[in-house]
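Structure first, sequence second, as always.
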């Protein structure tokens, strides 16, 4: 081979800035502290830095239009003029004001996150937001209405192409593909399947592609990750129509059709028949699909090999990748391949080099987006047969070997415990009916017992004290004293208003996953490892790098203290293994199911210790169980089996008399009700208030036997519900469930609410339960 390197693409890079520059600028702009020009200048600076960085790291196919002020799906809605009437848009270029109104509502989005993770619509008039495939990135759901038409309404993609060109970069602009865009949207007319709007949409895409061509673009990357989902015939034929149209109307543009987050699988015949110049495939999630693609592809189809994990933080074993892909390159020919991450690097933190607090060994096993681009470039050079990268390959080898054998990762005692998991550890001693009997006698609770989900308002005082403690301005003793007072006040107040089962308020917790991750072995945390969750909200997921164990009790002292303040039952509060797993970067040298079982064993230890300390009720939250569902239905069962097993491992090491609660932040349980029942928690609290209890139907139809607390207070809104409203909701619930099953509680934790809202709302909630008791 003669060329120095194969082409290297990145597919997209993080837009937030290494030090969260975009967040700062956006929030400054929203608060009126900086001007629109200042915001746009910051954005342009970030784009320029991104292009320069990718270029200097060796990327040769550099994306443009991967940047967004908020979200690339929202950008697409704006590009095609899919802007609901409510935003008062009269046509013409879309102003930033309209754009941000769609993103955040006119009130902004200060109150919309309950769990540190967004999973609801937000703001009053903001567009709904939901998870982008199986990532923790949330996109703004496109909205279509009756008689929807489309019209080119934003020149962003063209402008950013020009902007890069002026800086000397020939970029490959990125667009969300038309079919994925429509499929992710919703229509206000139930009779209209969004995908049926395709023919009206295509002219806008054609216009954009033609304009890009006129300005000099050779390639355009069109993302159609919908190709890794279960597709129906309408959707498949939409793909055929769309790309046939582009081939006909924009023959001069080469399209790299990008798929990611899974195998194309049964959609492969469709994908391979599309008249596009290139196909990007995710070979991390599905290495095995390459064979079929190689043999089934047109002989001139360029294949973009997604060989470095764009969804995770691990350094690759480059020599192993060279070995694996050398024969592939030989077969396809160097002219037909591009080297790329599995998906856009949007989902990885930016630069590992900024981290100064990580264990040096662990750090040497990691790669963030900057490091991943360097890896791609090394790999592309090595695969082109060039020897200039021997040192980089050797360093990668060394790190891979160290990681395979490091005692920091591999803990023999964990392996031993894992091997010893038996059936007895996966079930309670007695069936629910007998436990319920024992627990009823033990607790002697009134009908419709009232409780809350765990957290109470994280006020500015609480957050300031935590920050002051972290900076060393509050001593450990002072901080603990502060937390104790806050807790005691909250416990006393719950007693005063007459709640039946109390909580301590979770003031000592920064985040429901991080709090546990920090106390478990096997996790590390970063200083700058931010990834975008939505808009200007970024999260720093814990990194699960090694075998998990619990060196010492994590919550027992807080539980003991809070129970000492009251005679009423004090629920101990834990986060479940599936949720800890789903909200972390997880090791790639162990199946997720195994990592989850390890966490389950650690939580089981905590549950056992809590019981030993005297706890009679223990809640184990599984807020993220449902969002971990695989993209393909065929994989659901496997996931649910191990997820449920993990929950059972962590929750069953207790006596019949100990009551296990769980909580889930959603209520669409229809498809997974069997799994929820199989978890066999004594009590589950779920979110239902906004659905008028209709979502409880899942539980009714199945005759769900255990106790349920359907949320009667929508904690995502500052509004204080009246007693009557909550009583009506409970009445609706009673039509679907038996009285003896019902608990009364809010939808979720109260940490994002203000005390002024929480106080009257809970007083009303208790009053509603009392009225019902009297009446029945
Ligand atoms: N116990 C947690 C709280 O109350 C539960 C939050 C959640 O499940 N998202 O905040
Ligand atoms: Zn919740």
């Amino acid at each position: 081979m003669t060329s120095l390197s194969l082409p290297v693409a990145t597919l997209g890079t993080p837009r937030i800035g290494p030090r969260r520059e975009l967040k700062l600028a956006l929030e400054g702009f929203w608060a009126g502290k900086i001007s629109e020009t200042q915001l746009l200048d910051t954005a342009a600076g970030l784009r320029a830095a991104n292009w320069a960085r990718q270029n200097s790291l060796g990327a040769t196919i550099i994306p443009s239009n991967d940047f967004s002020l908020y979200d690339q799906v929202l950008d697409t809605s704006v590009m095609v003029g899919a802007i609901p009437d409510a935003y008062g848009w009269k046509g013409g270029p879309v102003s930033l004001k309209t754009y941000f109104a769609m993103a955040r509502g006119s009130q902004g989005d200060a109150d919309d996150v309950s769990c540190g993770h967004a999973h609801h619509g937000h703001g009053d008039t903001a567009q709904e937001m939901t998870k982008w495939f199986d990532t923790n990135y949330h996109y703004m759901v496109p909205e279509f209405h009756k008689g929807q038409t489309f019209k080119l309404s934003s020149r962003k993609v063209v402008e950013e192409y020009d902007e890069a060109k002026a800086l000397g970069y020939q970029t490959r602009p990125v667009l969300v593909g038309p079919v994925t865009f429509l499929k992710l949207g919703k229509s206000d007319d139930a009779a209209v399947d969004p995908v049926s709007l395709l023919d009206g949409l295509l002219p806008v895409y054609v216009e954009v592609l033609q304009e890009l061509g006129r300005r000099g673009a050779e390639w355009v990357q069109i993302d159609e990750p919908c190709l890794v989902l279960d597709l129906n015939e309408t959707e498949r034929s939409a793909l055929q129509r769309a790309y046939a149209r582009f081939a006909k109307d924009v023959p001069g543009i080469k399209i790299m059709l990008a798929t990611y987050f899974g195998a194309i699988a049964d959609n492969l015949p469709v994908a391979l028949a599309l008249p596009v110049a290139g196909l990007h495939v995710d070979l991390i999630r599905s290495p095995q699909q390459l064979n079929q693609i190689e043999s089934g592809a047109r002989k001139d189809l360029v294949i973009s090999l997604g060989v470095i994990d764009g969804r995770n933080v691990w350094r690759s074993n480059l020599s192993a990748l060279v070995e694996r892909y050398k024969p592939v390159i030989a077969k396809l020919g160097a002219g037909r391949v591009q080297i790329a991450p599995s998906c856009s690097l949007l989902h990885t933190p930016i630069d590992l080099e900024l981290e100064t607090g990580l264990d040096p060994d662990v750090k040497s096993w990691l790669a963030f987006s900057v490091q991943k681009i360097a890896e791609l470039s090394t790999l592309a050079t090595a695969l082109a047969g060039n020897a200039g990268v021997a040192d980089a390959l050797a360093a990668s080898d060394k790190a891979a070997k160290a990681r395979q054998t490091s005692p920091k990762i591999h803990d023999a005692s964990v392996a031993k415990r894992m091997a010893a998991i038996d059936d007895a550890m996966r079930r309670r001693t007695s069936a629910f009916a007998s436990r319920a009997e024992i627990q009823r006698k033990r607790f002697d609770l009134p009908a419709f017992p009232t409780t809350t989900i765990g957290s109470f308002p994280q006020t500015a005082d609480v957050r300031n004290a935590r920050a002051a403690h972290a900076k060393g301005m509050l001593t450990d003793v002072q901080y603990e004293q502060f937390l104790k007072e806050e807790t005691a006040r909250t416990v006393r107040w719950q007693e005063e208003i007459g709640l039946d089962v109390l909580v301590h308020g979770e003031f000592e917790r920064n985040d429901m996953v991080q709090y546990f991750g920090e106390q478990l072995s096997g996790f590390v945390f970063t200083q700058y490892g931010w990834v975008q969750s939505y808009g200007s909200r970024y999260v720093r997921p814990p990194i699960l790098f090694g075998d998990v164990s619990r060196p010492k009790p994590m919550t027992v002292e807080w539980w003991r203290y809070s129970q000492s303040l009251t005679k009423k039952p004090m629920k101990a509060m834990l986060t479940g293994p599936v949720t800890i797993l789903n909200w972390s970067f997880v090791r790639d040298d162990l199946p997720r199911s195994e990592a989850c079982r390890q966490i389950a064993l650690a939580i089981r230890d905590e549950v056992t210790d809590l019981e030993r300390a005297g706890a009679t009720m223990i809640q184990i939250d599984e807020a993220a169980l449902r969002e971990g569902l695989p993209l393909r239905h065929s994989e659901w069962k496997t996931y649910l089996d191990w997820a449920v097993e993990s929950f059972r491992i962590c929750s069953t090491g207790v006596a019949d008399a100990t009551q296990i609660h769980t909580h889930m932040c959603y209520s669409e349980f229809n498809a997974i009700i069997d799994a929820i029942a199989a978890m066999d928690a004594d009590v589950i609290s779920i979110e239902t208030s906004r659905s008028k209890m209709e979502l409880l139907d899942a539980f009714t139809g199945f005759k769900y036997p255990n106790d349920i607390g359907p949320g009667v207070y929508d904690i995502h809104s500052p509004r204080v519900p009246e007693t009557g409203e909550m009583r009506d909701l409970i009445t609706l619930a009673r039509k679907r469930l038996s009285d003896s099953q019902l608990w009364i509680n809010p939808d979720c934790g109260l940490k994002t609410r203000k005390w002024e809202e929480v106080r009257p709302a809970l007083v009303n909630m208790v009053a509603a339960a009392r009225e019902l008791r009297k009446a029945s």
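Margin note: The domain at 434-458+493-775 is CATH 3.20.20.210 (TIM Barrel).
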